[in-house]
Fold each of these.
Amino acid sequence: MAGDLRTRTCEYGLCDGSGMVVDWDANVPYRCRCWPEQVGRRRARALSREVPRRFRNIGFDREPVPSIARTSPDAVRAVRRYCDRVDEMLEQGEGMWFLGSPGTGKSHLAYLISQHALAAGRSVAIYTGPRLLDEIRRTYGEDDSGSTLDLIDRLTSVELLHIEDLAVARPTEWVLEQLYNIINGRYENERSIIFTCDLTGDETEEGGRLSPDALGRHITDRNFSRLLEMCGDPHVLMGPDNRRAHNTHAWES
Ligand SMILES: Nc1ncnc2c1ncn2[C@@H]1O[C@H](COP(=O)(O)OP(=O)(O)OP(=O)(O)O)[C@@H](O)[C@H]1O
Ligand SMILES: [Mg+2]
Ligand SMILES: [Zn+2]
């Protein structure tokens, strides 16, 4: 994968990608300018960054993205802008979020961003909301009591954290606390987050209209407020479920 090769090079052209430079006159090795990034990338390798098969070969000129651009032109334009300047965006800790009803293209847009970040050699962690919390929960069972902190630390320092379906898990106090640790850690370090989120049923306001504020009630206002600052205004993708559009509906009658 292109991302793997790029992580072994030095972006300042000073070392061989190991993060160390040898001063041949004094014969002493010292840390290269890229050392912090190399450490971050090594640490990020332990995180999940697998792109599911469905999203592996996506592109702006391949369906369904042109179709999504017809139904949600502003969102696709914003994603393209982000992808075109992905290095700059990640350096500034800019994020993006996609809210809306099922089957409207939110995940495709989010994966376009991850794909560009990986191709640019950036460290990326990709999780569904439930899987992320599950991994954190699992570290509690381990002997090493530092492992929860260590995982949170990794999740805080990876250059891009991509969370799919942030709001599906029924939030308990514990869940909200972990979410806060991650979101606040990234907020303080000015690290990018992108995420998608379905808001249906209870979380929608009267008349079935989606309310981004409902996410605030769901994940707590202090998480919501940080996300709002990091990700800007949410991109709201509403409309009919395009998964259903492919079906004949014959079974319904
Ligand atoms: N605007 C669109 N026009 C045509 N097809 C689309 C559109 N948006 C999504 N699709 C199709 O719908 C399916 C779901 O897309 P995607 O997974 O990106 O949606 P989603 O919004 O993330 O859904 P969910 O909220 O359920 O996760 C895919 O098969 C995709 O090809
Ligand atoms: Mg999705
Ligand atoms: Zn270097």
Amino acid sequence: MYFDDIPTIPIADELLDRSFRRAAKKMREKSNKKRANEDFVRAITQATHDKLVSIIQSFPEFEQLPPFYRNLCDILFGMDKLHQALGMLGWAAKNVRNVGKSIVRGMRRVDPLIERKRAVARIASIVHRADDALRYLNDVRNVLRKLPFIDMNEFTVVVAGYPNVGKSSFIRLVSSAEPEIASYPFTTKGVIIGHRDVERRKRIQFIDTPGLLSRTEEERNAIEKQALNALVHVADLVLFVIDVSEHCGYSIHAQEKLREKIAEIITVPMLTVVNKADIKKMEDRFNMSTITGEGVKDVLNELLRQRSELIQDKAIDIRSELLVPKMIRRGRHYWIKTEY
Ligand SMILES: Nc1nc2c(ncn2[C@@H]2O[C@H](COP(=O)(O)OP(=O)(O)OP(=O)(O)O)[C@@H](O)[C@H]2O)c(=O)[nH]1
Ligand SMILES: [Mg+2]
């Protein structure tokens, strides 16, 4: 994944400790007593600078990420804030290097021990100014590492609808995912991935999303924005779940309005399914109940039918390069994937 290589990010004191230890080790290995202080300043400058740079480099280029992940980072952390924090580390790395260099340059003319102490104090003060950024980036790193991996090559069904209509109950029933289910709205707070192997080589990637309300984009919170992000950027097909029994706490009118809004923003087909059919059904729609299991198989069959249709139309990957077969790396071999 894109975020697996980001190591734990140290706070300022830990980073300084580590640099001091490295510098001290280097000094033990070198025996030039005359230039010991100069070498020490050089070593601590280098260790601190390099660590700061390696932290920056461990983050991916956010602009190069697939749109789904790029938007998700923006929704979760704010791209400006992320860039600011990384910029702060860049500033600190540059300043540490400049301060270290200039102190080393003037060291022979003055008392080296005093200059060594001055270098340590200045470097520590610069790194401490980046402490907030280091702490923030470590929090970001911890969230990034837990983000679900969405395989952009899989046929992907994004399940959407009002809160509490039974989206997660459906995903739990038909896929490998085990999302939380509860009788209150907004139980699901982020996207959750599950898979279903239907027949040999026929696999569906299901994405559970947080409930959406029918409201303007400006009114949407970060949780809802994650659902929209999945709908727009990863869906090959949207499964819109409605609850005509209105046990979810929302009117069928509001749910229909949301359906229309989603239809406007997506470029992929949408299948509407009525859940909680054990309580109330709707004519001319797929009706299912995740509690009794009735109708669930029909919904899955319909998804498979649409999947085959989409593959035949070669319209499967309208998210990225249309009709361009994708290279997938497996072990040391490259395979060209043309069929799902
Ligand atoms: N009677 C009935 N209740 C159901 C059915 N499916 C789900 N429920 C109940 O509806 C409630 C909400 O289910 P969830 O699966 O958490 O709903 P959700 O759409 O994922 O909700 P959010 O994550 O909040 O958006 C739970 O109390 C479920 O037990 C069904 O087919 N029939
Ligand atoms: Mg849910």
Amino acid sequence: METPDADNVVSSTDGDKDKLDDNAVLSSTPFEFEASRPSVFWASGDNPYENTRQVLSHIDLSPSKSKRVLLKPNVGRNAQLGTGVTTHPEVVAAAIDVFREAGADVAVGESPITGVAALEAFETGGITAVAKERKCPLIDMDVRRYVTVDIPDGVAIKSLKVCREVAEYDIVVSIPVMKTHMHTGVTLSVKNMKGCLWRRSKVDLHMLPELSGCDEKPLDIAIADMSSVLRPHLSIIDGTVGMEGLGPSAGKPKALGVVLAGVDAFATDSLACSMMGISGRDIPHLRVGSERGYGVIALDSIEAYPRNWKDVQDPFAPPPDELSIEFSGYTVLDIQSCSACQSTLLMFLKKYGKQLRDGVPDDKEIVIAIGKGHEKLPDGTLCVGNCTARHKGCGYFVSGCPPVASEILSAFNI
Ligand code: SF4
């Protein structure tokens, strides 16, 4: 295989298969672990590179020798280092080095949220620099055509459009940032695999109809469904600087200075949740996935090493149930939006919220709607994003998918 420089996109021809004959993506992990009592390793300190090397030193990576390893950090957005939005480049750098030392052929790939270009996000977040230094290929996984992967056990979804590289590489390593998430409670190594879904098909998981007889949100069930075919072979969670509150993009950075690693993605996520002061059982996609047997989340069945993980526990502020609580003077109606619209709106409210509020009489309520699930909206609603287009007659409308934050202000003529 041709190994491009870090600043080149892999652009080999796509082959002719658009559908996998078998669920090759679901190959079981080559790394040894005890399924009934999985180990999760963690390290803390102010050097993310060393923390990552240390946690990986506990795992026998020799099965990756001569294999193609795809590192999948969370670089779904254009965000600067230190904001807690994207994976720390030094964590990625250490993973590249350690897998190479084990004899693997390593690349780093991402398919960001709608409206973000992967290579730009790699550059902004500092990953291009560490990859270039190591001549490690960076892959925009949206360039090539997807493969369709069936989900035999799927409840909310029966198939996925998956970035082709995920099916081609032998080993996929999920390297998320430790963050709370407005829609899914947290986003860790299981949820991070959603960034392996091709282009806009990620949005489909936010647009699913309610499931009859099921109390969970369809999005949570869909992520559990996804984890039946897209479970990482190894997880490395970057808690160097995570995010609390309005995650995944508009919360506050939270410096924890930890890195975790484990073969069981659910166990690794569950221990990370506990460090964040959250029970894995309160995260629906983790609970549902573990009930189906995809991994272990019960803390008393997880071998944390070292055992004194509570010493680094530092509760993260949860995401608010209602955005209106965070932004007084606004009522935000959010039904079946996706992260892209939500991020745009949060950015807008953070940057221009006061300006907009000051430009409108105090007694006028500002109602903003995002998402496609609204039956009826009050007169005067500011409808944001193409999903609300059918309600544009009832007030103001900002088109785009996702829309541009600054255009929300001009819709109000301010
Ligand atoms: S309009 Fe907004 S909520 Fe709808 S799909 Fe686009 S980004 Fe997502």
Amino acid sequence: MESYIKSADFFRGNDPEEIAKTYGTPLYVYNESIIRKHMKAVAEVITKYPYTANYSVKANTNIHILKMALEEGVNCDAMSIGEIRMLEAAGFPKERIFYVPNNVSEEEMQEAIDRGIMTSCDSLEQLEQYGRLNRGGKCAVRINPGVGAGHHEKVITAGKKTKFGIAEEDIDTIFDICAQYDLTIAGINQHIGSLFMDPEPYLKAVANLLRIARRFPNLEFVDFGGGYGIPYHKLNDEAEYPMEDFKARLVPILDEFVADYGSAPLFKSEPGRYCVAEGSVILGRVHAVKQNAGKKYAGTDIGMNVLVRPSMYDSWHDIEILRDGEVVSRDELQEITVTGNICESGDLLAKDRMLPEIKRGDLACVLDTGAYGYSMCSPYNSRPRPAEVLVCEDGSLKLIRRRETIEDLMAYM
Ligand SMILES: Cc1ncc(COP(=O)(O)O)c(C=O)c1O
């Protein structure tokens, strides 16, 4: 693909240079239509049985995006009281929030219980804590199915090497704790990891969780987790996650379970990235181009504080170069390393990347930044967090989060 922002008409006719000048850089720019399209897709992963998609809001908690989920009929997963509060502020009723925390204090768990929010317990001790706080109550347990999947060790969230979930061999102890505190297990959930393009490991994990589910009587729901990938190498024509094929292959697995179990509980999934990643780019200004020991560097204002994924997970984000609002052609490429403005040698956005010639004053447009982008921003180096702008479906622009200021940073002291 020559240009994603052109082929998706990402800015809906707005001039990205004007957007950058109006709102400043670095800037997260979202496209409402693309986000809604993805939310609609996850809402239809299962149609034969009762099902809800739970958008995993850790990917992006901007309240305007949460409202899109609300409107598209997508429920949500929260990992903290902060995320629960964001969801409540967006208008989500308690029934549409599932709390999937790990290692939380009694106070935090109590707050979720007081708010009437279904909570998943991530360990035997957390289940006991739940029992002490809410004797006679109803909760879920997160199962560690023993196998994980993902694009990086740091995002594999099941299997022998992770902190998450309760192992299958501890299921009898789950029932002991439930008996002790008169608890009902309403649901079981898992999340094997993040960003896979091949549905096979997820399908196996679904079948495996359903095998485990047979040990739990009268489940109200079974939650298979998230992790569906998006093509981060789209400029090199990487294919999309094969959603239709995945959906078709899921049905017989569910059929077999429902026939055995005698009824269909509510099935759930927990996609985060798939909902929002492709619906955002970051616009950043190139402030300096230089040679160091024969290597070319383009220095931008998109530091690791603005987008941490490349530094944290060695993640790839395609970059398009814009000059005077136009995409610079990729016909002639040269090797260059694109960096941010943070005082860290690991502050690299793209290492030894083949890109068109970059000049001072150009805009770097980093693709697929809607998931784990702003939500992982930090004010490191005392650089305020960027602003977020939405390109609405009608093409108008809306500031959906103002830029943080240095005064904001000082306000806590
Ligand atoms: C428990 C849980 N559910 C869902 C998700 C969403 O994953 P993804 O954004 O890959 O779909 C995550 C992310 O790591 C998670 O930890």
